[in-house]
Amino acid sequence: MKNKIIKVIEEAVNKIGGSEKVELTDSRGHGDFSTNIAMKLTKQFKESPITIANKIIENINEDFIENLEIAGPGFINIFLTETFFSQSINKILKEKNHFAKGNQNKYINIEYVSANPTGYLHIGHARSAVIGSSLKNILVHAGNKVDAEYYINDAGNQINVLGESVKVRYLQALGIEAELPEASYGGSDIISVANGFKKKYGNKWKDKSIKDFALESKDILLEIIKMHLKEYRVEFDIWSSEQSIYDKNLINPSIEKLKKYTYEKDGALWLKTTAGGDDKDRVLVKSDGKYTYFMPDISYHDVKLSRNYDELINIWGADHIGYIKRMSVALNYLGLPDDKLDIFTVQLVKLFKDGKELKMSKRMGTSFTIKELIEEVGVDAARWFMIDRSNSSEFIFNINLATEKSSNNPVFSVQYSHARANQLIEKSQIESKPGKYNKKEKEIINLLNSFPDLIEKIANSHKVHLLPQYLLELTNLFNSWYTNNKAIGSANEASSIALAKAFKIVASLGLSLLNISAPEKM
User: Looking at the domain covering 2-80, what would its CATH class be?
Assistant: First the structure.
C-alpha cells in the first residue's frame, strides 16, 4: 500500500510538471501517512508549499484514499478508507507466517563468530552470533538464499599454544610438576579439557607431543562451541577450516590471481593495498617464506567467491576494524565489487549485575561465557539484549533487567503482550471479522502494515536492531489499546479479535526471526 500511495502521488506530481522523489512517513494522529513533497518542489516551482500541495491534491482521485489535507507549512496528510484497514487485517490473517515474505532472490553468504577453537565462546562472540543468525533469518524471509558460515581459525601459533596449555594442565592433573608458560591459555575451560584427557587416557598421554594435544584439543573445543551455539539457537550451514586452506594448497592460486597487484621488497611479498585506499601496503609472504595471517584469509575468501554469491557479509569483532579496508581491497582485486561486500564490526559488551561490572579476562580464567550467560538470564533475554542496540555502539548488558518479569524488561513485555493477545483470542466465543476501527486501532494497523517495509529495509541495510525496536513499539501500541478498550462482549468484539490475531501473527513472526520464543501463556 505504501508503494501504491507513492505511485499515486508521483503521478500527480508528474501531471503538474514536478520531478522530485516522493517519500512517505507515518503520520500517526495526523492522517495515516504524510509527505513533504510540496516543500521539496518549492525551488522548482518558485511557489509556496501550500499552493503546490493544493495542485497535487487536485490531481489525486483514488478509491482507497478517503481524504487529503494540508497541514503546517505544506505537509500533505493522507487518510485511507475503512476498506483499506479491513483488507490489511485480512491480508495478515490469510498470509500468517508468510506475511512480509519478499522476492529479493539473491544468494548471500554471512560469516560470523569464527572464533579460534582455543576456549569456550564468551559474550563478545554472543553479540555477533545473535546479529548474524537473526540477519540470516531476515534475509531468507526477504526471499534470499543464505549460507551461514563459520571460519575455524585452526592453524597457526594459537593452536600450538592451546596444545601446550592443555598438556601442562593434563600433567598437573596427573600430579606431575609442570609450569604453565606465560603465553598460554589459563581459563577453567582449558582445565576442563585437560581433565577430560585424564579421564579418557589416564597417564597414557604424558609423553605425547604438544601437536597431539593441540589436534585433539581443538576438536574437543570445537564440538563444545557447536553445542553452546546450538543451545543459543545459532547454527551454521558451512564450517570452513583455515588448516584446510594449507592442506588443499589453495594459497598459491590466490597469490597468482593477485600477481599484478603485488611486488617484492626486503625479501617479502607485498600487496598494493594503498592503491585501493588502505593506509599502507600489506605483507602476504614474509621474508622467511611464511605467510602472514592476511594471506590464508584472502584465500579463504577466494574460496567463498568461487561459490558465486551475489553478496558477502562479514561480521567481525571490534578489534578487527583496522582489518576491514585491507580485506575489502584484496577482494576488489579478486573481482568482488564494493556493492557486493559488507564488512561490519560489533562493539564490545559490558556485563553489569547489582550495579557492578563483571570483568572479563580469558587468559586469567574469568571470562563470562555464552553458556554462563544463558544460565544466568535464559536464551530469550540473552538474544534480545544483544541485538536491541546498533552493532556500532558499545552495549551495557544489565543482567538484573534481563531477568526482571515486568514491563521494564523489553523482551518480557513483547512476549507478555503476545500471550495477552492469545488469551484474548481464546476467551472470545465469536468469529473474528475486520470491521470499523478507531484512531488507536488504525495506528496499530498502519504499524503492522509497515512490517514488510521493515523486513526489506533490514535486508538491504543489515541493521538488525531495527526489528526488536519495531516489536517494542508495536507492543506499546497494542498494550495501550488493550488497556483502554474493552474487547470481549463489546459491539466491536469481532473486529477487535481480528486485530488481536493480526498483532499476534506479526509479533510471533518478528520474535521467530530473532530466534526468540513467543509463549502463548505467561
Answer: alpha beta
